[in-house]
Design a protein that fits this description.
alpha+beta; BirA Bifunctional Protein, domain 2; Rossmann fold; binds histidyl-adenosine monophosphate
Length: about 425
């Protein structure tokens, strides 16, 4: 039996980077006042159709949708924003305090063609802020993303930002776009032609090379912003500049979901071939109302967790990380017994300690320590134990020291906690 195409196991030897990211992200979210929310994996199909948009790639082609035994139409969540908005409305969170900040980490499902950095079950780290219209929040979220990536040691990323306007500026943009498309009709694919009447903005998502070429000079939302959207975007840009963050204003960035208004952004990389976006987000000031809640401005982003880890693996492979702190080489019965108790105490103190109980030779045990990429090796021989000492060897520098067994565990804890 094999996993389904586009689905994968994340095996124990790969998990440490996932845990490191989760730890950094939750720590940072908490410092910025976000609270964790956990939402269901399955929702009514209608929720995603109404929020992401019926005429989008996700809803038209990529959702895992099925009828349950009673005939209810359900969908495995392709993203988290819609569900978090649903939850905000369902629990009337706005009544007590409309300003809320949430984060969640978990699997999403989209039936795309699998390739490097693109899976059918993938993970997102998602953050959303409700109730704040100020452009400072837009630059704050981009700052947060940048800070997380910096803490994780990622470099070479670029922030692409755009403004998609609001219902007030949309009609003028849509008219300009439709006029332009009319002229390019002959070069567009059937899918684009079909979308022309239903959702012209989504024509700009088309991945077909000929369509992309024909649409290269298409009108941009940025050239049709109303006064308020324009000054909002100006504040985002000047704030980012003052924060010392580099960004690229990218007129062609339209994102693939219909709910966006005003600022939208993507953090892009060149490290993953065709999959350039490590994170994406934006404002969606109309969605809460659209789904039945009160008018509430909102904004958020999602990081592609799998992609983030893949970039980190590329960096980490170069470093060849050591995987355990200490390997205990026990030679003889007494050493085995002592070593066993020391290992328990060290494990308890959070020091990654391993030993081997098979009674192997010194040579075989040193080989095992190498295989486990131990940082230190503790060598316990019967003759030295009688003198109440053991040898500690630093596997990087090959330096050795003698430690007294009486104070061995606290001494080791000191060494590892330095
Ligand atoms: P999105 O751009 O569709 O936005 O997805 C966010 C990120 O998820 C992408 O930048 C990418 O890194 C990752 N991702 C998407 N599809 C896949 C896939 N098939 N395999 C691996 N990674 C993938 C959203 O989902 C919005 N809900 C973000 C948001 C939150 N906007 C406002 N709030």
């Amino acid at each position: 039996m094999q996993t389904i195409r586009g689905f994968r196991d994340i095996l124990p030897e790969k998990i440490s980077l996932w845990q490191k990211v989760e730890k950094e992200a939750t720590h940072l979210f908490k410092s910025f006042g976000f609270k964790e929310i956990r939402i269901p994996i399955l929702e009514k199909t209608e929720l995603f159709a109404r929020s992401i948009g019926v005429v989008t790639d996700i809803v038209e082609k990529e959702m895992y949708t099925f009828e349950d035994r009673k005939g209810d139409k359900l969908t495995l969540r392709p993203e988290a924003t819609a569900s978090i908005v649903r939850s905000y409305i369902q629990h009337k969170m706005y009544a007590k305090d409309p300003i809320r900040k949430f984060y969640m980490i978990g699997p999403m499902f989209r039936r795309e063609r699998p390739q490097k950095g693109r899976y059918r079950q993938f993970y997102q780290i998602d953050a959303e802020i409700f109730g704040v219209e100020s452009a400072y929040v837009d630059s704050q979220l981009i700052f947060l993303l940048n800070e997380l990536f910096k803490r994780l040691g990622l470099t070479g990323l670029s922030a692409h930002i755009n403004s998609l306007g609001c219902p007030e500026c949309r009609p003028s943009f849509q008219k300009a776009l439709l006029d332009f498309i009319e002229l390019k009709k002959d070069s567009l694919c059937e899918n684009c032609l079909r979308r022309m009447d239903k959702n012209p903005l989504r024509i700009l998502d088309c991945k077909i090379v000929d369509c992309k070429k024909a649409l290269a000079d298409a009108p941009a939302t940025l050239d049709h912003l109303c006064h308020d959207c324009s000054s909002h975007f100006d504040t985002v840009k000047t704030t980012l500049e003052k924060q010392g963050l580099d960004f690229i204003v990218d007129k062609s960035l339209v994102r693939g979901l219909d709910y966006y208004t005003r600022t939208a952004w993507e953090i892009q990389t060149t490290a993953l071939g065709a999959q350039s976006a490590v994170a994406g987000g934006g404002r969606y000031d109309g969605l809460v109302k659209e789904l039945g809640g009160p008018q509430t401005p909102a904004i958020g982003f999602a990081i592609g967790f799998d992609r983030l880890v893949e970039i980190m693996e590329q960096i980490d492979n170069k470093k060849e990380a050591r995987t355990i702190d200490l390997f205990i080489v026990s030679l003889g019965d007494l050493a085995m017994e002592k070593g066993y108790h020391w290992s328990l105490e060290l494990n308890q103190a959070g020091i990654r300690t391993e030993m081997d109980f098979r009674g192997k030779s010194m040579k075989a045990l040193m080989k095992r320590a190498d295989k486990l990429k131990a940082q230190y090796v503790l060598i316990a021989r019967e003759d030295e134990l009688k003198k109440k000492t053991v040898v500690i060897r630093n596997m990087n520098t090959k330096e050795q020291v003698l430690l007294a067994i009486e104070t061995l565990v606290p001494e080791l804890i000191k060494i590892f906690n330095k």
